């Protein structure tokens, strides 16, 4: 695809990924004392290189608890494998600010000599097309349950159309350099949002690649004033539909089936057609993995390991109507699944002691949570999407660097305590729904998976930095029984919880 030497100097300059994802590790271990943010019981003696240990968990985790006058049940019945791990350190990380040279090297690698152009923004005709679809109840806008909401959408799109340019402007070349976000007031008006203040900071770069604009590059640089993190994305083609995104749409459609039959049935048919396409594998997962790993090797990115793989559909340019104002879900109604090419997305992250770093869509905190953590920035992750013949997308989020080793090894809190705290967090989430006292409805929350990994919490006495700590990841499926004539039981979309494996505190996703 490209020549490895093109970026070797760049990543030597950046010093990236010597410790498995973030930038340069200090030459000397800066181990902080046990008193500095970690309890005495959490710090363990480091094991020798290559030595491993088992984490004690129940072979079969079976638990059930009723609360709230028996109107809510939390339950788990899982077969659990015993994790075998090496040293489980706590590491301190900080955001990495990309330099001009680093940006130029990345852009040069993916642009491959093509000219760069300022991206086009939606014009008045684009917004009018969406307004017409709302009026004509086309695609997702035919949902009768959301008619009032779409009426509000129409008003917002009309305001956006008044702010949008009348026609596309002339092509304008650009060069790789961080600057202010391209002005596009209509983009925010169509969602009734205020433009983010960070847009005025010189931390953005966006460009279409080549005269045919067949690929796009987008980068954002870390700024303490913006409260963001550095990222870099390159994507060829129009759109990527991941299997997880498809599952989320399916869960939403299934939830509406009983109350919204005709529309949802059509929606299910469309999603079913995309499901068929998602199953049309025309190359092996191993073949695509080799292409993804070659890309990381060419970029000289080391110690980021394959964490997960997801099936996807990649749509080339022209697969959907050329409308910058149309949203993702309605594109699926307007497009043809057969235009998509089967792909795999390979997700790479750090591996610490045999455990991968991750960040779930964890619930926000609720009243009653005593120990809680809100990470200062997202987990570093690289996603590479590959079709049968080439790489079509590279997405690097949360670019950071390692500051110090807080503890070289840790002792995890017992799983029984973790399970008890999880049930607390689920119950706090339930109480936030403020179920009326006279309601007969019952909720059952079933834990469907429990996995040990690593994630971020704020660093002790330095909340702009993150600590990388062991954590338990739980997925929970809620079931709702209204116990009211005329209303049917329903299973709601899966919810996710992260629990600190050192103190059983709740961890939310970075917002």
Shape: globular
In quaternary terms, these chains amount to single chain
Q: Rg from C-alpha positions?
A: 25 Å
Through-space gap between termini: 35 Å
Query: What class would the helix/strand composition place it in?
Result: alpha+beta
Reported for the largest beta sheet, the result is: 18 strands, mixed
- The overall pLDDT, averaged over residues, is 88
Beta-strand residue percentage: 25-35%
Total helical segments = 10
What level of helicity do the residues show? 10-25%
Low-confidence stretches: 1-6, 12-21, 23-35
Number of strands: 22
Describe the structure in your own words.
- This protein is of the alpha+beta class.
- Helix content is about 25%, strand content about 30%.
- The strands form three sheets. It has an 18-stranded mixed beta sheet that branches.
- Strand 13 (about 350) and strand 14 form a beta hairpin.
- Helix 3 (about 125-135) runs antiparallel to helix 4 (about 145-165) and helix 6 (about 245-255) runs antiparallel to helix 7.
- Mean pLDDT is about 90; it is low at about 1-5, about 10-20 and about 25-35.
């Amino acid at each position: 695809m490209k020549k490895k030497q093109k970026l070797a100097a760049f990543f030597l300059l950046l010093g990236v990924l010597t410790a498995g994802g973030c930038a340069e590790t200090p030459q000397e271990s800066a181990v902080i004392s046990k008193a500095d943010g970690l309890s005495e019981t959490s710090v363990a003696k480091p094991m020798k290189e290559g030595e491993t240990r088992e984490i004690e968990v129940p072979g079969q985790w079976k638990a059930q608890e009723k609360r709230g006058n028996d109107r809510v049940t939390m339950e788990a019945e899982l077969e659990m494998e015993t994790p075998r791990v090496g040293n489980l350190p706590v590491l301190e990380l900080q955001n990495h600010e990309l330099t001009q040279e680093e940006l130029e090297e990345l852009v040069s690698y993916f642009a491959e000599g093509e000219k760069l152009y300022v991206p086009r923004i939606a014009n008045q005709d684009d917004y009018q097309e969406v307004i017409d679809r709302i009026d004509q109840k086309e695609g997702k806008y035919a949902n009768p349950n959301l008619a009032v909401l779409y009426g509000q959408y129409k008003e917002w799109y009309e305001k956006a159309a008044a702010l949008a340019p009348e026609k596309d402007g002339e092509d304008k070349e650009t060069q790789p350099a961080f600057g202010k976000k391209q002005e596009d007031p209509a983009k925010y008006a169509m969602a009734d949002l205020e433009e983010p203040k960070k847009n005025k900071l010189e931390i953005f770069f966006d460009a279409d690649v080549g005269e045919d604009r067949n690929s796009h590059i987008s980068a954002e640089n870390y700024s303490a004033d913006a409260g963001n993190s550095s990222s870099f994305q390159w994507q060829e083609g129009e759109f990527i539909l991941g299997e997880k995104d498809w599952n989320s749409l399916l869960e939403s459609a299934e939830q509406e089936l009983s109350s919204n039959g005709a529309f949802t049935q059509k929606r299910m048919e469309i999603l079913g057609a995309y499901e068929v396409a998602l199953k049309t594998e025309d190359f092996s997962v191993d073949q695509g993995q080799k292409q993804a790993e070659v890309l990381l090797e060419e970029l000289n990115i080391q110690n980021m390991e394959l964490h997960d793989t997801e099936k996807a559909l990649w749509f080339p340019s022209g697969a959907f109507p050329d409308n910058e104002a149309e949203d993702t879900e309605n594109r699926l109604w307007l497009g043809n699944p057969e235009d998509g090419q089967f792909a795999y997305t390979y997700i790479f992250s750090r591996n610490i002691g045999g455990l991968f770093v991750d960040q779930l869509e964890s619930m926000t905190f609720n009243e009653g949570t005593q120990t809680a953590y809100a990470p200062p920035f997202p987990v570093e992750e690289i996603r590479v999407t590959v079709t049968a013949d080439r790489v079509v997308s590279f997405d690097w989020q949360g670019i950071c660097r390692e500051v110090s080793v807080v503890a070289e090894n840790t002792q995890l809190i017992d799983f029984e305590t973790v399970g008890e705290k999880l049930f607390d967090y689920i119950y706090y989430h339930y109480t936030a729904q403020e179920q009326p006292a006279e309601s007969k409805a019952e909720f059952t929350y079933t834990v469907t998976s429990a996995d040990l990994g690593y994630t971020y919490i704020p660093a002790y006495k330095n909340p702009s930095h993150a600590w990388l700590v062991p954590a338990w990841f739980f997925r929970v499926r809620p079931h709702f029984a209204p116990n009211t004539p005329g209303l049917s039981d329903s299973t709601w979309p899966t919810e996710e919880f992260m629990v600190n494996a050192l103190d059983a505190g709740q961890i939310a996703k970075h917002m």
